[in-house]
Amino acid sequence: MKKLLIAGISLALLYFFVTHRSDSNASSCVRSTSPDGLYIAEECRLDWNHRDNPEYVGRVYDAASGKLIARRTLQTPVPQIMWASNYVFFQRGGDDDDVVMLPPSLYDRINALYWRMTQWQIKQGPSEADSDFRPETLSISHADTDQVMKKLLIAGISLALLYFFVTHRSDSNASSCVRSTSPDGLYIAEECRLDWNHRDNPEYVGRVYDGASGKLIARRTFSTPSPKIMWTDNYVQFQIGGDDDDLVMLPPSLYDRINALYWRMTQW
């Protein structure tokens, strides 16, 4: 049921979104799909009315929504588009590879949202402070009617809002990124290197997203890279050493707001 739900939502969004874009002067394109089917990359030749000196462009799309993730201009054709677990690079040989980091896909965010909605803590007996206390998955067969309806309502509202939110943002000059998901799956943080046309003196940017909607929550700029992204209950910390740590307080997530709205509506 989980796979069917995600597949159905992805196909429905695919129907409504523009599935592909191309430059009006593109005369030929080579396309490749990621091994997991979540992304589409293409490399196109741009004639620009001077066929003797063509340019090439590489683009990466989210396969489910059709959203353009990144665009790169290349001076030489791409022999091969290669995929890894978290990036795609247009291989042109030597040190001239152009890397595009892959943000969390629409499928990944729906999957995280589904996982979160099925994690219901049973608070009968031990408290959360008890070291033996663990979240448990509450199956429908053991749930009462209110909990089942709560799950269905949250799922419907979350997926409806997910359709309308901007799925992701990325800096066009980001060359490499490190990502981390909060322990509860509600937030996604990333730290990216920005070249800004001077590779010898790069800058770094940290961003935090709502895990369900993909909405950008905060953006921080650093002069040094972050060795580690750390999470607590109410903030994320880009740990860059000494007193230079940059904290981002986490607002109530989309899931938390829907949960609070449901609670409020049922209090009569």
Verbal overview:
- This protein folds into two domains: 83 residues, no CATH class; 166 residues, no CATH class.
- Helix content is 22%, strand content 34%.
- It contains four helices and 16 strands.
- It has a four-stranded antiparallel sheet, with no helix packed on it.
- Strand 2 and strand 3 form a beta hairpin.
Keywords:
single chain, 268 residues, alpha+beta, 2 domains, four-stranded antiparallel sheet, 4 helices, 34% strand
H-E order: HEEEEEEEHEEHEEEEEEEH
Strand order of the largest sheet: 1-2-3-4
* Radius of gyration, taken over Cα atoms and rounded to an integer in Å: 22 Å
What class would the helix/strand composition place it in?
A: alpha+beta
Gist of the model:
With 268 residues, this protein is of the alpha+beta class. 22% of the residues lie in helices and 34% in strands.
List the helices and strands and how they pair.
Blueprint: H1 2-16, E1 26-33, E2 39-46, E3 55-62, E4 68-74, E5 80-83, E6 87-91, E7 98-101, H2 106-117, E8 119-120, E9 136-137, H3 145-164, E10 174-181, E11 187-194, E12 203-210, E13 216-222, E14 228-231, E15 235-239, E16 246-249, H4 254-265
Antiparallel strand pairs: 1-2, 2-3, 3-4, 5-6, 6-7, 8-9, 10-11, 11-12, 12-13, 14-15, 15-16
Helix pairs in contact: 1-2, 2-3, 3-4
